[in-house]
């Protein structure tokens, strides 16, 4: 048997950092990004290693060293920054029986600037402070989960301030003050380039599961993730999470492919800024409100997606939207996306609509994901953690 020097170095790095690893030396990013973030390398050839504690994880994420960081267990940040009790509000929209539903923390003055609506009430809220700000992630990082064991509890990730070339694969981010609007974002990207978010799961999040803020996040691929909206603190009083995906960057190109987005009731996604979005082969299931809320400025191609039990696939259409309306019309995609767009499919759902084509030329020369006929079972089976 022959061992390469690189494999030996990798195995020793892991054995130093992690105890009792069953799959010693086998960790690596799986596959490669397609679509806009194609070419992302994350930590590249840096040896993979397991942080021994939440504080070591925090320091490895934020430093200036190219790293492959393996989560082989739960990293629990709940309580690590203490709790806060202060005035928040019960927004006017929260008419849920028994004071259920989602109340709000007064971040961004949301409770006091009118956003909470006429009839909102000031109430005391107590929340976990760690949840409301994400762990800062620097450039050149791969953050990967081992099997289905990599869990980040109580705190999300923030890839911002120019951090570039980051891969987040196969981890579950959960329990960020789910009872409160503004309780925390699972994954925030704001001012970045080449980010690949693949095979992760998001659940029980107070605010957005994924948010691309107003800065320019450039090339981003979001693939094969599970957005699980099941919650006991629904802003819409029906067990479904309202605040799922928010894409309003100022120069963002986002590929959304193979994601399973279920039990949400709005903002799945909300779009705006001047985001160019390719939504392909995603599966929306059991959405009691809307999937797309297409704000002014965004440009969206939706193809090969499956909508099952989705009340309103498209809420407003202020931006440009090509909904792949018919096999004849879909040939127009070929010139810029290099394939004929695939039809979307709908079961017990509203309609999509949108035949804008003027913006399709903006896909020309970019890395564009391929499209298949959408299959709900294949997308569901292939998304989330422990599935690669
Ligand atoms: C990230 O990697 C690239 C390519 O190796 C390098 O040029 C850049 O300086 C790195 N950035 C940081 C912050 O280490
Ligand atoms: C489900 O996903 C696994 C990989 O996690 C794959 O091996 C299997 O073939 C898939 N099954 C179906 C029915 O798609």
UniProtKB/TrEMBL annotation:
<dbReference type="GO" id="GO:0005576">
    <property type="term" value="C:extracellular region"/>
</dbReference>
<dbReference type="Pfam" id="PF00544">
    <property type="entry name" value="Pectate_lyase_4"/>
</dbReference>
<keyword id="KW-0119">Carbohydrate metabolism</keyword>
<keyword id="KW-0624">Polysaccharide degradation</keyword>
<dbReference type="GO" id="GO:0000272">
    <property type="term" value="P:polysaccharide catabolic process"/>
</dbReference>
<feature type="domain" description="Pectate lyase">
    <location>
        <begin position="104"/>
        <end position="313"/>
    </location>
</feature>
<dbReference type="GO" id="GO:0030570">
    <property type="term" value="F:pectate lyase activity"/>
</dbReference>
<keyword id="KW-0964">Secreted</keyword>
<dbReference type="GO" id="GO:0047490">
    <property type="term" value="F:pectin lyase activity"/>
</dbReference>
<dbReference type="InterPro" id="IPR011050">
    <property type="entry name" value="Pectin_lyase_fold/virulence"/>
</dbReference>
<keyword id="KW-0732">Signal</keyword>
<protein>
    <recommendedName>
        <fullName>pectin lyase</fullName>
        <ecNumber>4.2.2.10</ecNumber>
    </recommendedName>
</protein>
<comment type="similarity">
    <text>Belongs to the polysaccharide lyase 1 family.</text>
</comment>
<dbReference type="InterPro" id="IPR045032">
    <property type="entry name" value="PEL"/>
</dbReference>
<dbReference type="InterPro" id="IPR002022">
    <property type="entry name" value="Pec_lyase"/>
</dbReference>
<keyword id="KW-0456">Lyase</keyword>
<dbReference type="InterPro" id="IPR012334">
    <property type="entry name" value="Pectin_lyas_fold"/>
</dbReference>
<feature type="signal peptide">
    <location>
        <begin position="1"/>
        <end position="18"/>
    </location>
</feature>
């Amino acid at each position: 048997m022959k061992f390469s020097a690189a494999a030996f170095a990798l195995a020793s790095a892991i054995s130093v950092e992690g105890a009792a690893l069953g799959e010693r030396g086998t960790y690596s990013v799986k596959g490669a990004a397609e679509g806009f973030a194609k070419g992302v390398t994350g930590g590249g050839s840096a040896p993979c290693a397991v942080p021994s504690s939440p504080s070591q994880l925090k320091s490895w994420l934020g430093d200036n060293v190219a790293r492959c960081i393996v989560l082989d267990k739960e990293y629990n940040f709940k309580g690590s920054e203490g709790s806060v009790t202060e005035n928040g509000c019960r927004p006017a929209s929260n008419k849920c029986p028994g004071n259920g539903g989602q109340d709000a923390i007064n971040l961004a003055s949301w409770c006091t600037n009118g956003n909470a609506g006429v009839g909102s009430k000031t109430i005391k809220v107590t929340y976990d402070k760690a949840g409301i700000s994400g762990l800062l992630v620097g450039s050149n990082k791969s953050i990967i989960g081992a099997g289905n064991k990599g869990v980040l509890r109580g705190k999300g990730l923030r890839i911002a301030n120019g951090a570039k070339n980051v891969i987040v694969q196969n981890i579950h981010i959960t329990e960020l003050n789910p009872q409160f609007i503004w309780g925390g974002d699972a994954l925030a990207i704001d001012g970045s380039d080449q980010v690949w978010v693949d095979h992760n799961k998001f659940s029980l999040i107070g605010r957005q599961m994924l948010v691309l803020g107003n800065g320019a996040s450039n090339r981003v691929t979001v693939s094969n993730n599970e957005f699980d909206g099941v919650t006991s603190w629904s802003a819409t009083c029906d067990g479904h999470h309202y605040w799922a995906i928010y894409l309003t960057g100022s120069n963002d190109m986002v590929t959304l492919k193979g994601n399973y987005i279920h039990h949400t009731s709005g903002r799945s996604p909300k779009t705006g800024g001047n985001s160019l979005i390719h939504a392909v082969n995603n599966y929306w299931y059991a959405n009691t409100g809307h999937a797309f809320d297409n704000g002014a400025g965004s440009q969206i191609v939706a193809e090969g997606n499956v909508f099952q039990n989705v009340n309103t696939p498209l809420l407003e259409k202020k931006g440009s939207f090509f909904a792949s309306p018919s096999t004849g019309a879909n040939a127009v995609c070929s010139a810029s996306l290099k394939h004929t767009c695939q039809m979307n499919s709908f079961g017990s759902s509203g309609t999509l609509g949108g035949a804008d084509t003027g913006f399709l030329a903006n896909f020309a020369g970019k890395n564009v994901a391929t499209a298949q006929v959408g299959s709900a079972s294949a997308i569901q089976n292939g998304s989330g953690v422990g599935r690669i």
